[in-house]
Amino acid sequence: MELFAEMKLLGDGYAGGFCCGMTMSGSETMERFTKVEDTQEYKVYRDDRGICMKLQGKQDGEALRLKTVVRNEGTDQVTMEMLSSFALREVKADKIHRLQSFWSAEGKLRTETIEELHLEPSWNRCGMRIEKFGNVGSMPVRKYFPFLALEDSRTGKFLGIQLYCASSWQIEIRCREDDWLTVAGGLPDRDFGQWMKNLAPGEEFESPEAVIAEGNSLYEVCDKLVKAQHPLISPMDSDMDILYNEYCTTWGNPTFDNLKRICDKIEGKGIKFLVIDSGWYGHSDYWWESIGDWDVNENRFPGGMKPIADYIRSKGMIPGLWFELESLAPKSLHYNDCEHLVKKDGVPLTVGGKRFWDMEDSRVVEYLSEKVIRLLKECGFGYLKVDYNDTIGMGCDGAESPGEGLRRKVNGTKRFFEKIREEIPGIVIENCSSGGHRLEPSMMELVSQASFSDAHEITSIPLIAANMHRVIRPEQSQIWAVLRAGDSEERIYYSLAATFLGRMCLSGEIYDLAERQWELVEEGMRFYRKAADIIKNGTTVVHEYTAGGYNDPKGQQLVLREWGNRGLAVYHRFAESAEEPPRLPEGCRIVDEYGRADRDFSAKAWIYERENICK
Questions:
Q1: Cβ proximity of 361 and 334 under 8 Å
Q2: Nearest one of 479, 473, 482 to 452, comparing CA atoms
Q3: 23 vs 27, 208, 393, CA distance in Å?
Q4: Of 389, 412, 509, 542, which residue is most buried, by most CB within 10 angstroms?
Q5: Nearest to 354 by CA among 363, 366, 341
């Protein structure tokens, strides 16, 4: 396997092999480069026009972190229309693993053979074969995660890759002359994502990062990639504490009175954060219509948000507040403030009735600093949930290309996340985008937690929660258990056990639960606390499931996560599930258990110990 970099400049010829329109790799631009330096830390290429391309790499634990830096040392402006973060040639693989993602169905593993992808070389090696995928827009985990794993089943070796890109991205796999594969990825090229970037003499541009790892299983490479992520987790959020979000209790209609009722019910239960979700603001009865104004709805919260924040703190919990700070809804007072909105073709970009603040605009930053940061500070909120419920799409005005305009707007959002942390040290930030549409590493490194999905009450929650182990740290993956007065004991076990696959978040009709139901919930909370170190620090070593569809899952799922000499087993049964017990590690000693998996849609979890299971 050889590491290298790829780029294409405007005006240069494309590669042959019938690939124009499918790839910009292997172009005339690359033919004009000469490698002038090659060390363990970097490779440097130069051409006759004064363009310097440098692939930089550094070890990060058991993974390698890469990026490409281009500098124009010539006398004329050039325009890039493709730039890779990484490229690999001479990769041997016969299976490709990707993670598909749609709303409330994030991270489904998709495995295909080279033959199924039609990536065998042609008979005379003249035709290029290409599989290209990615995302276009500001929801980087829509359709696919920026992730790829390649497997060579003959040797048992795996190669895993993650891109750190919160805007559009692409990965391509190609072959032509032999059975070896070439893999490259980074920002989307001009064909895929309408990205171009001008470089004037003396200017430099840096690609998003990519991280790669090798291992002997999909579990191993995913664990190495995830452990190479370095999230800025707040000191207030370092102990895997439990939170309560009221959205599935009030459904966007929070008031001082109903939140006071919730506080009184969960006081002393060991819940650290109480998050007020959408609907606390605006001048409409419908929470989604006034997004963008952030004026407190005093009919719901007389005297503003400070009284309820103070009340939450008086009950021993940290108050949290929801914003969708980048968006504006039709009844927002600023919906037609065109000067400060994202535009496409000169007019405000409108998606499903929603518009978007221009996060590069200093006036927008001032406005959001006043409406978001100041309110959080003055009221004493210690937790911020940032939601984002639609995508800019292909791109926008404001740069030399729509794709570059999009990249710059998204980077403006990331800078505002940094500003929030700077002005409110220690605040806990949750990354949400209609659930899991922003679960990519560069966003995850800016926050403490993330919504794993909007799958609040459906039966596929355990499947989605387990999927997330491949791409984000479980300590950041917030999984909801929505409790209803009509829940059976089996349903409570099922819901609570799913949260053992990440961070426990409760919601629902907690003030209507019977005494026995509360006993089961509190037993689950005690079990979760005992398992917290394994969830946080462990390695997922087994993820077995038989379910295919998510709307009506059938079969069962077993997840084993291990740390030191301790392990956590989480077992869920779906429809038409097997009656035999799950296969736990031989010779293990059960030290605690929770649940009852004796029928369809039931669950059980165990904490176990054995010698030398993981170092």
A1: no
A2: 479
A3: 9, 19, 21
A4: 389
A5: 341
CATH 2.70.98.60 in the chain: give the residue spans: 2-227
Could you tell me which residues are beta bridge partners of residue 11?
Answer: none
Tell me the C-alpha distance between 430 and 246, whole Å. 15
- In the three-class reduction of DSSP (H, G, I as helix; E, B as strand; rest coil), residue 92 is classed as coil
Distance CA 171, CA 439 (A): 17
Provide CB contacts within 8 A for 466, sequence distance 6+.
501, 540, 543, 545, 557, 559, 570
Report d(CA 589, CA 600) in Å as an integer: 26
| Exposed/middle/buried for residue 279 (C-beta within 10 Å: 0-12, 13-18, 19+) | buried
The segment(s) of the chain belonging to CATH 3.20.20.70 are 241-330+358-532
Look up the CATH architecture of domain 241-330+358-532. Alpha-Beta Barrel (3.20)
Q: Is the pLDDT of residue 378 over 60?
A: yes
Place of tokens 């639609």: 390
d(CA 579, CA 429): 42
Using one digit for the tens of pLDDT, what is the confidence trace for 37-56? 999 899 999 999 999 999 99
Rounded to 10 degrees, what is the CA torsion of 513, 519, 521, 526?
Answer: 160
* DSSP 8-state assignment for residue 371: I
Side chain identity at residue 606, one-letter code: W
**Residue 413: count of CB within 10 angstroms of its CB:** 22
Question: Is residue 358 packed enough to be buried (19+ CB in 10 Å), middle (13-18) or exposed (0-12)?
Answer: buried
Centre a 10 Å sphere on the Cβ of residue 579 and count the other Cβ atoms it contains. Answer: 10
pLDDT, one tens digit per residue, over 73-116 is 999 999 999 999 999 999 999 999 999 999 999 999 999 999 99
Q: Is the CATH code 2.70.98.60 the one for domain 2-227?
A: yes
